[in-house]
Amino acid sequence: MEKAVAVKPQKNGGDGRRQCSICNQRRAALKRPKTLEQICRECFYAVFEEEIHRVIVDNHLFKPGERVAIGASGGKDSTVLAYVLSELNQRHDYGLDLFLLSVDEGITGYRDDSLETVKRNEIQYGLPLKVISYKDLYGWTMDEIVKMIGLKNNCTFCGVFRRQALDRGAALLKVDKLATGHNADDIAETVLLNILRGDIARLSRCTYITTGEDGPIPRCKPFKYTYEKEIVIYPLLNS
């Protein structure tokens, strides 16, 4: 997608607000974090979705007929990803079978609300949902694990278990790919952490848009170039 630029000189409206720099027809509703352009709500939706579509197409993330699981935590990134992928799949006829895949770690008071969000997404977006739990997979909830090992390094254990749970859940769904909501901010943070750690091996891989291509189920990041602020703005403007 070409970078959005003003095609006419911007004019102020009667209330002092500038016209949208893309359509020059509606009043600007926000200054876009990614480009600092002042644009209207409708144009923001259009460029946000079109840029993600271009990322999917240009990087050949999916093939027609593939089964794709969306890692659904119930947070903003995965919720917006589920909605946008569902919309783009219909609009551009990707030919994908989409599924929501969520992990219940068994942490009291932590995952309860987000699982309810994922269950609402299942209904709102019409996407089948698979919830897989640590208890079912490992015979232990994360709360039970912490009681045994203490709080030290519990995040490390949980991270490893969660990654394995997503892989096993994806295998149960028999999907071809797993799409995650990692965005540009997440990737930048990972790059900095790997530089500080001196982890050259991970540094060379952490910016890939698709990983695990040599494994059974590759993972891809449709939000690789999407700013976190814009992911936050997207549902707020739509509310």
Automatic annotation (TrEMBL):
Q: Which residues bind ATP?
A: 71-73, 77, 103, 181, 186
Check the record and name the Gene3D superfamilies matching this protein. Answer: HUPs
Instruction: Say which domain of life the source belongs to.
Output: Eukaryota
Q: Which residues form the tRNA(Ile)-lysidine/2-thiocytidine synthase N-terminal domain?
A: 68-206
Keywords attached to this entry: ATP-binding, Nucleotide-binding, Transferase
Name one matching Pfam family.
Answer: ATP_bind_3
TM ranges are none
| GO molecular function ontology, one term from the record | transferase activity
**What is the protein's name according to its record?**
tRNA(Ile)-lysidine/2-thiocytidine synthase N-terminal domain-containing protein
Tell me what organism the protein belongs to.
Ilex paraguariensis (yerba mate)
